[in-house]
Design goal:
Distance between the termini of chain A: 61 Å
Radius of gyration of chain A: 23 Å
Oligomer: homodimer
Helix content of chain A: 55-70%
CATH class of the largest domain in chain A: Mainly Alpha
Low-confidence stretches of chain A: none
Mean pLDDT of chain A: 96
CATH topology of the largest domain in chain A: Neurolysin, domain 3
Structural class of chain A: mainly alpha
């Protein structure tokens, strides 16, 4: 067996463990009774240790070196697979095992404190444990920087967005900061000049909401023979490509929020489902990164399902299933409610225009904290200053400020940028889809999504991790990633 | 760290993987969409390989030997844990890895053929693959016989019923064969002299059946903060002691069959839930074996929930939740339906009196096949002869004969005896419980099961695998396992 073939066998096994962990995560968020959490955590920790041991086994490094000397005759998929194996190995071996464990334990401990601190609006109570998480995250970043030959911040970013670069993020975010404030002002002014669209009166039965969600998911191409829709506190897309498990939540007073969450997760699910089956369980068969993943959810949610065409398709279906009557169920009202702009304090409730401000704020602050330029104790004040500067509003308390997101408390540093990178990629891909599929708008009105899915399948989903994010964007759209399509999309939708 | 302590760490990890596999099994039987089965099978196979590698790692044998030389100062639990570690290790290393894999693959292949052969009533079609399973099972048995110092059949049995002995099984089954035919005749005669109890008219809504099941489970002590009740094709008890997942099935025409399945699985669940928490994930913390496990489900189902006292407790609850009226809902009718005797062809539908005949038949035939005394091609005829001899009925086809159970086709040889051993243990334990708890009958009428559960907790559940099955029975009942209490129970219930 060649070194490369041996590696495929080893990574197939690692992939199997990774899938098992994913299924257990889904169970923990959807099915598990509360008393099961301790056993559940230990099962996952055990599998993670085993996976890490498999990845860092002494012979893997030698096999990688040997395989990299055998690339003649390899096809592009094998080469890319070997590249991704090397990347995963570098991440795994860069950090000593006891530091991995210490970071993981600190994050778990901090998350527990945060869960109480957030509703209590008590940032001071979480400061010590968050300090420990930050200290260990810095150590991890420093260790990975050496192992990966990157800056510490990029070494963290690379785990979520492979080859992600701070220079590019700075350039893109700088452009957004250039046009967004003016665009927001004009969108708000335009909105103020319009009547507020009527809102449908609830309550909306959960069973009817679910029926509507399932129906729209099926129209979008979600295959319930290879996936499920369940309920969890925070919607997510989990499971495996052959058994995609998405979750949502239902509000009996407002069906639209849950529905849009469902459609967002459906975008993630369609990506997972169409990853290349012949590379299942191999690194190259995985989704490219979190920015590309978010682009697929946002393309479905923002570009497709918040369009006026989708409103024309979906409004009658929703009216029929939810049993509604009156103007509030007209496509126009549905559409206008979907694109309502309102600067607010909470990221996950933000509209398309203000969302980047939330992300950029977090990226700036986390980099400052990691660099030691911002003390944790000064985070609440810095947060308020940034919110004032960017959106002109200031949270009255930390609950609606720096305590609102789990990420930092849970040890996820370097993640936030992928949300807005995803929005940019979604807009650029959507612009190219519209050029390739001149009938797209009509298709959406008719609920015909197969040509769109075929385009995404060919240009994104089926590529797995064959290409870098940058290469995939260039090949699919003919240009490097920029902000022009995103800006144009916002101008057309909110000012047009 | 002492050798023993090192082993505890290693086995804790093995236990974590085992629990993860159990959760994935539950998912596969309850939640998984059909298209997920391939990925699901690979995840489980991967974890099984990892678990086997952990168990057979070269240093484990040395650690066991070293720990066995350090037993001075160890408590009884540590010693028992070490004994169980050695047992698991012996089973794992006895069989070469490629034979394990070959047997597993043959069983999977045969099970697929059997799933088609059974409804098609086509034993001939499954004969070649079943032959391969039997051939490899013989090889496994021979290898384990050497490694464990047992006879080949006992080496298979030991995996399900540790220290199980064919001599004891022959003795017990011989006694049963001595008294059961006459007892069956007399029970049938007595039943024939009674009016058939009226049957409640359905349909019974699944949601109401579930509500009734949940209510009775809670009364029996099932903790829904640490467990679930779901639906699967074949009821089972899975999950982990801190998150016990039982399943059932509902028939809208007949609520009793599903309810009794649920109560049977509840008995298994109460055992799992009360295993010693301080030995969680260690071999000594596991349930003692399949015979003892079955005793707990049968004690709850047969000894408690098919008693006239339980009928008095449950009938009004069922009538209220299921909305029934008339004589069929009287406790007496409920009770008489629960103890109806009817010799039949299908094991899983059998009553308490005829069940042992189904088991003994299978045990005799499987031992003859393993010994080479019965050719597979002659199995259908041998089955018919045995059924004629034991129950006086003959299946018209193999679907209701030797094709009915999955066990042999799935590679499970040596398992069947545990069903009837469990019934004997249940009867003997129940006799001792009645002596210890003179108010038991009244307690059951009042739906008060805590004293019973406390007795079982003290004498069985909390012991884990500290003692052998034989020791546990002797300590709990003051006698070795026999058939007298089972016979007396049947005489009192069916002839009294």
């Amino acid at each position: 067996m060649s070194a490369y073939t041996t590696l495929e066998v080893r990574f197939r096994r690692i992939g199997g463990v990774r899938q098992a962990i994913s299924m257990l995560h889904w169970d923990g968020a959807t099915m598990m009774p509360p008393g099961g959490s301790g056993a559940h955590a230990e099962q996952i920790a055990t599998l993670q240790v085993l996976m890490h041991e498999q990845l860092t086994a002494p012979e893997i490094g030698d096999l990688l070196t040997a395989a990299e000397g055998e690339t003649e005759g390899m096809g592009p998929w094998q080469r890319a697979n070997l590249r991704e194996m090397r990347r995963r190995w570098r991440h795994a071996v860069a950090v000593p095992g006891d530091l991995v464990a210490a970071h993981s334990h600190a994050a778990s401990a901090c998350e527990v404190v945060w869960r109480a601190a957030r509703p209590a609006n008590d940032f001071a109570s979480v400061l010590p444990t968050l300090g420990e998480v930050l200290r260990l995250t810095r150590e991890v970043a420093a260790a990975k920087a050496v192992g990966l030959g990157l800056s510490p911040y990029e070494a963290l970013l690379d785990a979520y967005e492979p080859d992600g670069s701070t220079a590019e993020i700075d350039r893109l975010f700088g452009e957004i900061e250039g046009f967004l404030p003016d665009l927001l002002d004009r969108a708000l002014a335009r909105q103020a000049g319009r009547n507020t669209p009527p809102t449908p009166a609830g309550p909306f039965r959960v069973s009817a909401q679910r029926e509507a969600s399932v129906g729209l998911m099926e129209r979008l191409g979600f295959d319930f023979a290879r996936g499920r829709l369940d309920v969890s506190a925070h919607p997510f897309c989990g499971g495996t490509p052959d058994d995609v498990r998405i979750t949502t939540r239902y509000d009996e007073a407002d069906f639209a929020t849950g529905l849009m969450s469902t459609l967002h997760e459906t975008g993630h699910a369609l990506y997972e489902r169409s990853l290349p089956a012949e590379w299942r369980l191999q690194p190259v068969g995985a989704a490219r990164g979190m920015a590309m993943h978010e682009s697929q959810s946002l393309l479905i949610e923002m570009q497709v399902c918040r369009s006026p065409q989708f409103a024309r398709f979906a409004a009658p279906i929703l009216r029929s299933i939810l049993g509604g009557e009156g103007d509030a169920w007209e496509p126009e009202a549905f559409y206008l409610r979907q694109i309502r702009v309102r600067p607010g304090l909470i990221r996950v409730d933000a509209d398309e225009i203000t969302y980047p401000a939330h992300v950029i704020l977090r990226c700036r602050l986390e980099r400052a904290m990691l660099a030691g330029d911002l003390a944790l104790a000064d985070l609440p004040g810095a947060w308020r200053d940034e919110m004032q500067k960017r959106l002109g509003i200031v949270p009255q308390d930390d609950r609606d400020g720096c305590l609102q997101d789990i990420h930092w408390y849970d040890g996820l540093w370097g993640y936030f940028a992928t949300y807005t990178l995803g929005a940019l990629i979604a807009a650029q891909l959507a612009a190219s889809v519209r050029l390739s599929l001149p009938t797209l708008a009509d298709d959406i009105v008719r609920g015909e999504f197969r040509p769109l899915l075929q385009w995404l399948g060919t240009n994104v989903h089926s590529k797995g991790s064959l290409l870098s994010t940058a290469e995939m964007i260039s090949e699919a759209t003919g240009r490097p990633l920029g902000t022009a399509d995103f800006e144009l999309h916002l101008r057309e939708r909110y000012l047009g």
